[in-house]
């Protein structure tokens, strides 16, 4: 156990864990986006998906705890790595080690690399807002709307549309460097396939960002309509049971 802790605490061990947790979270994003795309199929389909997940009374809590642990570990490792990198560069700020000019990457990937910490913080804040909406139900406390209705309420409100649009685009920007960096942390770095990984990583980041961003964008365009609190429950008539609230509508 002591040897394992030492290995994980080493510079290489931290990089390996950073890469593994990053790729695991990327896998979750794919699954999460796939489920959310059912919103375009209709409220009934999305509710059926949500109910199927919630029916996993044992597996779902385990998966959520595991995902939360992965996220916390990834955040901690990101902070530690950023601190170590900053400390390692301090000498370079005082004195140049060589007159040789090192080639640097340019463009969006380079910018994304420099902004990993601030974009990571924004993504974390966005995640807390997202959890507040779907787990705590901060937009309609005391009510118990179905999952589709909850989503429609979020996507139908101007401020939350803006928050979700910014959050998802920043997530994609974070992934531009994060995806390919995960492979590099795992030691998968060779001229034969590094370029391909970077290209695939850029495509992956774009698909994830645009996929999630499509929901607030379509909300802004009025695709998701209907009060997310759903229609009022009809009063019982002639001894009949009250009708179930109608699901939020899709345009």
How would you describe the overall organization of this protein?
There is one protein chain. The protein is an all-alpha fold and 251 residues long. Helix content is 69%, strand content 0%. It contains 9 helices and no strands. The protein has helices at residues 2-9, 11-36, 43-54, 59-94, 108-114, 116-136, 147-155, 158-185, 194-220. It is globular, with a radius of gyration of 22 Å. Residues 93-105 and 227-248 have low confidence and may be disordered.
Question: How do the helices and strands line up, and which of them pair or pack?
Answer:
Blueprint: H1 2-9, H2 11-36, H3 43-54, H4 59-94, H5 108-114, H6 116-136, H7 147-155, H8 158-185, H9 194-220
Helix pairs in contact: 1-2, 2-4, 2-8, 5-8, 6-8, 8-9
